[in-house]
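sry for the spam today, last one i promise. struct tokens for design, 359 residues
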């Protein structure tokens, strides 16, 4: 079993079974999530016999690092993680800003200098089949365990510590649909959030969903402080259905209604993700339609020119059209940010590298 799959209470129970004093659980937990130990020998804070027992019962690494390409822009690092059953997932560290950066501006770069955003996966592949998405094109392989989700964060936390840095933001926007793997995704967030452990603030997480309505409502009821992003990409059911099969089950109105419920329950702003596809969803007319649907909702739109993928013929919107889309939305009262993706030269866009390996 992977050590990161243990909750603190499961660890406590196990040590009880092993007839260890209860404070050992805390020592191991701190070793894992505060000292960032990655191998049983490092736990010099517990007796050797217990270290050996840990080594015997648990694995400390969830995956082997398969490919590592460094983007020529020097900002993007991208290992591929191979799980024991050979499934491949990805987690991307962005050195500045969000996974997709703002339109480059020296001031924004300066302000964001210490920002280290980590984009992690929740599934190998994805069952939602969005046509423009490389992960969707791969199909569903399996859910990740909570420990496999946590392990992606620990890998980077350990790496950054060596450079005297740390992860500042975590987005669940890598491979997979987090709300399709709800319990494991939330368990991973809770484990990382533990004040006696890794202590990563809830508000520094963002969870991105294709728009699974019952889970949005459940998430709202749990009143989590985690940021919520919804992948909308179209302002009209027919157009959304053409690129996102999930729209057959959950219509745009239902998704937006669930978002209104979320805002009412939490008082938090919702983000709508919008991949700008040339000639498909980037016209001023679409922007006006979108703005009309979002009226009165505490939200903003995060628009990113499409990352072209092998399985979809759509092309990215150019900068000028992107800015017109933004202006049109904002004139109608809906705040919008245009982001430019980094690392396209190493295919660091969502699911692209692993997708390439599978095809
Ligand atoms: N399954 C979740 C989270 C992972 S995808 C979701 O869909 O929200 C993370 C974001 O990348 C989503 O907004 C998704 O729509 C977007 N995305 C996927 N493929 C893309 C592409 N080729 N270009 C731009 N954005 C893409
Ligand atoms: Fe899955 Fe998200 Fe890709 Fe859609 S965009 S296929 S939900 S990972």
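last one done:
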């Amino acid at each position: 079993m992977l050590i990161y799959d243990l909750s603190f209470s499961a660890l406590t129970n196990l040590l009880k079974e092993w007839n260890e004093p209860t404070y050992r659980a805390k020592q191991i937990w701190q070793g894992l999530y505060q000292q960032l130990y990655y191998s049983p020998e490092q736990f010099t804070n517990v007796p050797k016999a217990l270290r050996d027992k840990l080594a015997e019962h648990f694995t400390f690494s969830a995956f082997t690092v398969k490919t590592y390409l460094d983007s020529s822009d020097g900002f993007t690092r991208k290992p591929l993680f191979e799980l024991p059953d050979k499934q491949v997932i990805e987690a991307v560290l962005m050195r500045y800003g969000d996974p997709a950066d703002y339109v480059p501006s020296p001031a924004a770069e300066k302000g964001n200098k210490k920002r280290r955003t980590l984009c992690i996966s929740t599934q190998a592949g994805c069952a939602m089949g969005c046509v423009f998405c490389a992960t969707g094109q791969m199909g569903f392989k399996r859910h990740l365990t909570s420990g496999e989700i946590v392990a992606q964060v620990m890998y980077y936390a350990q790496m950054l510590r060596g450079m005297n840095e740390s992860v500042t933001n975590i987005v669940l926007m890598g491979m997979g649909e987090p709300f399709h793997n709800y319990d494991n995704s939330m368990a991973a967030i809770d484990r990382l959030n533990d004040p006696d452990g890794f202590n990563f603030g809830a508000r520094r997480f963002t969870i991105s969903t294709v728009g699974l309505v019952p889970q949005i409502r459940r998430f709202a009821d749990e009143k989590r402080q985690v940021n919520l992003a919804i992948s909308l990409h179209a302002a009209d059911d027919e157009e959304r259905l053409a690129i996102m099969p999930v729209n057959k089950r959950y219509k745009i109105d239902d998704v937006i209604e669930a978002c209104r419920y979320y805002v009412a329950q939490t008082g938090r702003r919702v983000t709508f993700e919008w991949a700008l596809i040339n000639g498909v969803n980037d016209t001023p007319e679409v922007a006006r339609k979108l703005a009309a649907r979002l009226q009165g909702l505490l939200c903003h739109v995060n628009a990113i020119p499409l990352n072209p993928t092998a399985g979809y013929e759509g092309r990215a919107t150019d900068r000028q059209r992107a800015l017109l889309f933004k202006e049109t939305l904002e004139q109608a009262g809906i705040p919008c940010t245009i982001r430019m993706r980094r690392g396209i030269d190493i295919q660091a866009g969502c699911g692209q590298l692993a997708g390439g390996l599978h095809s």
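Residues 146-161 form the longest helix (16 residues). ok im logging off now
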